[in-house]
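Re: Re: ligand-bound prediction request (bumping)

Still looking for help on this. To restate: I need the protein modeled with pyridoxal-5'-phosphate bound, output as structure tokens. Inputs repeated here so nobody has to scroll up.
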Amino acid sequence: MNTLKKSLEIYERSQKVIAGPSTFGKSPDQFAQGITPYAVSHGKGAYVWDVDGNKYLDYTVALGCVILGYCHPYVEEAVKKQAEKGFSFSFVHYLEVEVAEMLCERIPCAEMARFGKNGNDVTSAAVRLSRYVTGKDHVLFCGYHGWQDWYISQTSMNGGILDTIKEYSHRFTYNDLESLESLLRQYKGSTACIIMEPVSRVSPKEGYLEAVRKLADQYKVVLIFDEVVTGFRFHRGGYQALSGVIPDLACFSKAMTNGLPLSALVGKKEIMERCSEIFFSLTTAGETVSLAAAKAVMEVFDKENVIEAIECNGRKLLEGVKKTIHSHELNDVVVADGFFCRNVMIFKDSGEVPAADIRTYWIQELAKRNILSGGYHMVGLTHQDNEISCTLDTYAEVFRLIKKALEDGSLSDQLQCSTAKQSARSL
Ligand SMILES: Cc1ncc(COP(=O)(O)O)c(C=O)c1O
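Reply:
Sorry for the wait, this slipped through. Here it is.
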């Protein structure tokens, strides 16, 4: 069992000075609290070290950002070089133009770009811009898009948001065209945009994204793809390049810099050039170190054929996990679902034992065996054969324990922490 002495000390200190974790997805209660480390020290490749010196294989990769592995040498070098030349200026830095050109070259809908610091900045800007250019108010969405009022008003954590805000945003169901079309009918003539992740846990049904595009055109609403997570994970040009369905606007962040704070709103010129008529401005939007990272990341993607490598790593992992589940006769208890580059373990109730307990037990036992999991795998360039074979051996061991604990009815009693909560996506 790992010693977590310093981690727990830092947790105690944090309780006095940090008003909840700054990032919802890093809340200790989403992991095996007290067993998953609270505080990390550094990372390298596919691994992170906690403040007590324990080394972990990491599948959470900074909530999907670190697609090339921690401290990728090429990106690190570019960042260090830029850091020696100044972070921020009162004038446009040439890197802003270079990175915008690179985005426009590879992302199909991108004719122009604007930068922000995180996913929220650009999803908010995309919605505001859509409202402005259409002169309409309503927003139709599915999936998670950040902490802005129009979105969070429709979740269970909607404290502090004016009641009226939620009258203007409406959730539809992915892959259910009628759920979108009925909203378009209901808010005909007053809908500004449809905002959605082009793909999340499941693939789009055949023709679904094409039909969404058609509906957006028919009802004259802006189609926004939120590619904050999908961006560069499925294709160097985003999921839109893979699907061939081209939105009007798109939002990129996370993997774009391998972990530095930068995001991009991209899209068709006729819409994007009106950005300067609304107020979307951040002091640090053109900060150079993150721009240098974005440039280096895109260069690595091209030089090292990252997409193919991730697909290969992910295929071995996902197929191996499915096989291990099957060989332990746990198909009724857990399913590995999703894509090679991004997949999730879905746990089901087993008799009296709730799925949440089994999921927590899984996270707990993996943390004890030095694998960091939030119940999902964000597969990256550095999750290679060694990592995958170690993962599959560990999973076999933990599945054996789950099987036994379910058979003898002791699973819930073996939990050494409170039930791990789900992420913001399930609010
Ligand atoms: C699909 C999607 N959109 C937007 C966001 C918000 O991004 P950020 O947390 O960087 O502001 C997230 C964050 O996880 C996301 O997954």
